[in-house]
Design a protein that fits this description.
Elements: H1 2-10, H2 13-32, H3 38-41, H4 45-52, H5 67-80, H6 84-108, H7 113-126, H8 136-157, H9 160-176, H10 178-199, H11 204-225, H12 230-250, H13 256-259, H14 264-269, H15 271-283, H16 291-313, H17 322-337, H18 342-366, E1 382-383, E2 395-396, H19 405-421, E3 426-430, H20 435-439, H21 465-478, E4 483-487, H22 493-496, E5 504-508, E6 513-518, H23 522-525
Parallel strand pairs: 3-4
Antiparallel strand pairs: 1-2, 4-6, 5-6
Amino acid sequence: MFTKKFFSTIVNDKLLIIILFLLSILVNQYYGNKGVFPVDSFSHFDTGYRILLGEFPFKDYWIVSGPLVDYLQAIFFYLFGVNWQSYLIHASLINGVLTVGTFLLLRNFQLNIFYSFAYSFFLSILAYPSSGTPFVDHHSAFFSLLGIYILIFAIKTEKKIYWILLPIFFILAFLSKQTPASYIIISSVLILSSYSILKKNFDWIKYSLASSILFIFIILIIGKNHGITFSSFLQQYIFYPLTIGNERFENINVTFQNIIAHFKFIYLSMVILFYVNFKRFFYEKNFIRKNDFFYFLCLLLLTFSLIFHQLLTQNQTFIFFLIPILIAFSQISLNIYKFNSKKILHIIMILACLFATTKYHIRFNEERKFHELNYVNFELAFNGKKIDKKLLGLKWITPNFEKEPKEEIILINKTKSFLKNDNRNKMVMTNYSIFSSILEQKLYSPSRWYLYDGTDYPIKGNEFFVKYKDFLINLIKKNKINVIYTINLPSSSVIYDYIDMNCFEVKEINEILIGYEIKNCKEINN
């Protein structure tokens, strides 16, 4: 009796929240230091630093997603210094907030404290650590997920604060990346419309509408102060990405493997949740007017929104964090419905979740599959401080130089030294988006990524090609650029597709660095 009382006193919600928060931060910090995939891992490193230098998205670099992620990273750099660990802590804190939010939600539904802890811990392993570094898809999905949590809390408690917070989190998700946020926002609007009609409750509208208007007004003021025009925002963030989305939708690969087999564990996690709710739908009077029905809709449409996003983007899968959430709510649904033999099912579900978590932890965290590092020998990695002290703690190894990371570091250091000694106004185009930060210089990169497929900036054939060409030329003129450098880019088309090759004198400095010195050129000098 004494032992039970003592144990329940020691192990309580507050203690477990602290433990979960710390564990979720530590696990992401650890795996975020394990190897790099430059185009993804460095997505917000230089752009976060550039904001501290007074350069802003839409105005100083073309951007198709993630302005919020850049601004948040600038805050972390300002508070904790420009270094790799403060870069990771950004993603780690999002992981921590999401984990704690999950635990609080599950406990609010009276799920056993130990099951709540376990499922939340499993989520912390499957959520941000797959990337480790700040990434637009993760931010958008996780702010959206927090928005869904708030929606569930709002429906459950009808407290004003949740209706006020709801649109804020969805706006944050949209400013991280348009999708999957847009799909989840549309789903939430459908749910709220049904909720209002069936419940005859429209009070929430005034609170959500007021907070939306106020928050958007604050964003517009920030944008105006930073010289960002509304037209550039619409052009780069709304209209141009729509051309990418339309093309991807037309080319979506619909196969059994892609739609069913690949997400089988997510679907299996929903089986009991589906069964219980569909049974209640047919056998329980007015079930569609009960809150449980709306919780189910939230989880269902969230899941299919994220699956649709993965099918459309065709990027590495990162949504397996849904598994512990869906299994947890399956268990909650059994408790509400008072299903027979639920104790046995609880054990089966927690073991199934443990299996799935272990499986995807090994694949995406240990093997770093999300960053294309699953065939890399991490024993060959070097400490990032060999490049610069700002990268201390990073185990440097990349897919491009997986067998010769030392050679890559030598080339990067040669490039770093050359750029440091060139005092001219220079523009650097590279997927190693760390040079502005480590050199502490403005390098005026016109884009965050250089992928050659039109997903990061308009290429030939796109209706916004001329807009980007004008943007690039104006950037060169405005900053009086003397020379453009490309670092480890496979083609000169990032320059020659927009500016005549006769405008440049080309020099190969080393194996990864090429200089394009600007000569007399009508396109640029006029």
